[in-house]
């Protein structure tokens, strides 16, 4: 936690000139993206077509929204394992609200996001005020969310379908040719960059991640910052779930299960220290795209599902090992 | 071999030196530990006592000089090697694992084994024997350490050291956690161990304990031995005299000869207490006044500063700012007006700074609530405040966007101070701010303290360097065992008075009271 490179933090200090002093990890991630595209194009020329790339970005945007929340929590040196069922809760609650006619449909998105923020608040209070390790609290609230959703649905797929607004948000195209999901991801990303680089809250997040004692003794309300971070993470997880429900037209049991490991991996592959305090948002974007491409290429190569999972898991472990072994650049 | 004592020395140090960076901790130190004797080591802060013990116990290696065991040269590469050679250590901080049983703790380093598994019965027997030798037969080997009171734990600690069958036992402030009754018991045990032929090395700052227990005393100063003598052959004031004589290397700005006494106290505390670590502390600091905290390390100075800053929970007594009582719930409350407090913490690397973050981010970190508008950082204002501070404190850095960890120790400390000065505090609490920084930067900090005081700040300044207390402070409170034992003012702040009150003895001819 004490050693770092000069470039890592300057990314956020000087965004305009960021290309010159960008984090080596971010460069590596972007390099891997290009390599994957190159490998893919050797396999099939379709890989470089705009349609395919836009489709990938669209798929990536769901993970991107979730990973944005995960990143804040990881920057603090914590982790949010409640992602799968908070996503599902957000999706199911939004679809449930949509079932209540027009009035319900108009508040469907906020209802979904707020239900996720409620779980985030639970996590935040547990971590910041009750001092329970985040791994335990968030794992527990994941199970609680799962239980509540099973009770609500009776264990079957819910019958409510997504409202038109939700579907439009995920699959419509406000800008011709560009799916709205991508626009939403860009908007969330812009807000994240602003939050992390331009606000006192963002500075406090980095500060706490580096040394919670020093941040506390500097008079920063460390517990409040930690709590808010978990609320943001919960809200973004649920929002990701809402978008996914719009994409699939309805919520489904366990729809968020495939997002926990990828969201953590995307953040860490993007150069954010798993111990907290270090990392830039650009890296997380790169990590999200990288992971989405990897999944896509494995499926295009028509590898059987089991083999895909194995390769996917191994690649993530190897990449994390490589990053973890990188000598402290100082 | 120099001495012609009747029993040959068990352990000797000859010409041992040790440096930490540029700081000389030990310089050509000599020591002779004789079996059947209790040898007391005396010295003020930074005299080299703890380095001496660490070398003897194999925790650090000396830069030069020889260690001799039974007249043969030895080199300890680890504490385990020293233990194997028969040197055991009882440290001030307890090294017991609370959740394990007494027997488990005593046999922790080398439990008796049978077929690779711990032989519980043998372990229990070993523990019983060790406890009996330490005079603590009443402690059940199967009791969990966490259920024992502190004084009993100290006995277990001694038993643990004895379990390895040492020939020399080092006790570093081993009685500081004990009640008077327990101290008497420990003393009886130590005297018995001595009569059994063990060599004991006893480090303490309690003069009366040394007078009662020790056979031989050695005084250290500035990393050198000053004198060794038979216990009882010198008076307390003679011993204090030997400990005096730090080298003066600093130049201090002249003190303010103003009528500051007329000003009302800015910060005042009455009967401040915290568990049994701080007791009945009362003092006040006026506008423009620098009040020093002195005494040996670990007598409550650090806790006092933390208590004033609202970090400690459950303090008793009251703190007054500008004459009205305040309840400070934490640093966030303490830094806000009207309190406007600042604390320069003890360890700048973990408490003062976020080392991997940039100089810029560290400088503005504590003042972001003033620089930000609606939570959004006003970059122009941030830039302005940072420039002012870099210029005011002459912080030398390759740029504002390099990690603060790349700066020199002195410049890091300047960043810690600057980040608080950005808030223009009225009450400044400093916890040993000059530790580990170069002489030039020290001078600048002294000047700065004086300037801040002249500008009206109330300053509480804890230093382990008596020289600084003499040169910088208008008044000095000397703490001993969590209490203020003496208050020195003006010319009465002398090294003699500081050391004598730090040891809580009368200084003889020049004793002073406030």
TrEMBL record, chain A:
<keyword id="KW-1003">Cell membrane</keyword>
<dbReference type="Pfam" id="PF02653">
    <property type="entry name" value="BPD_transp_2"/>
</dbReference>
<protein>
    <submittedName>
        <fullName>Ribose transport system permease RbsC</fullName>
    </submittedName>
</protein>
<dbReference type="InterPro" id="IPR001851">
    <property type="entry name" value="ABC_transp_permease"/>
</dbReference>
<dbReference type="GO" id="GO:0022857">
    <property type="term" value="F:transmembrane transporter activity"/>
</dbReference>
<keyword id="KW-0472">Membrane</keyword>
<dbReference type="GO" id="GO:0005886">
    <property type="term" value="C:plasma membrane"/>
</dbReference>
<keyword id="KW-0614">Plasmid</keyword>
<keyword id="KW-1133">Transmembrane helix</keyword>
<keyword id="KW-0812">Transmembrane</keyword>
